[in-house]
Amino acid sequence: MAELSPEVLDRLLSFQRTEITEYHVYSRLARRTRDEANRRVIERIAQEEREHYELWREYTGREVKPNRLRAFYYYLVTRLLGFTFGLKLMERGEESAQEHYQALSGVIPDMERIIAQENEHEQNLMAMLDEERLRYMGSIVLGLNDALVELTGALAGLTLALQNARLIALTGLITGIAAALSMAASEYLSTKSEETVKSPLKASVYTGAAYLITVVFLILPYLLLGNYFLSLAITLFVGILIIAFFNFYLAVAKDQAFGPRFLEMALLSLGVAGFSFLVGMLLRQVIGVDV
Description:
Helix content is 84%, strand content 0%. It has eleven helices and no strands. The termini are far apart.
């Protein structure tokens, strides 16, 4: 204790709190994990986090309470967004902590061993994760991407052609439901024709559900607001938010790059919407429809 500078002591206390917080998160997740093999691995990782906490306590001579808010946050994220996403999000935090560990490797004798254990955590997690929603991620991407591109384009065109928020919402909803059922049927037949362990029925449900949920979020502004141009602007903004959230989810859960995929999907959706808007304006003039 006497040899530790105030800066090093503060950093060790921060490490200590992080370790005991993650111990509680992993322990709680282990109790909720049904798969026996996964549960054993998480329990072992939790125990190692506890050992790290006790090691830092030997250096600091202090007891530290866990960050209850952070623990609840990670647990809630895992329950809502899936086992894989929650744990990999936690591991991202551990990667950041390892950089700080490296800075103290010449000061703390046990630092190299702790760094090695933290690296092993990530390897164990990557090896054990097998979540149904990730196996069917291709089906979810299909439904989500098609809904964003097709419906934003359709709503943009309908906004100029019909110029009535309720009528646009009704037409878009009918179009969206029909398209969702069509996409689900297509995904069922496509998966059934492939040599895969995926269930054709589950694949079709994931595709259809992703499409329908996206449809609801995109049409909601037209149901809540009377101004159809404002509704279109909000719909496009909601579409961008959905694209950003989904690509962040993929970036964490499947270790994919966020930027390129986000830009590709966003530009594609906005490009189709802009083109459809012009088509709607042109057809309104040519056909002479006045709703």
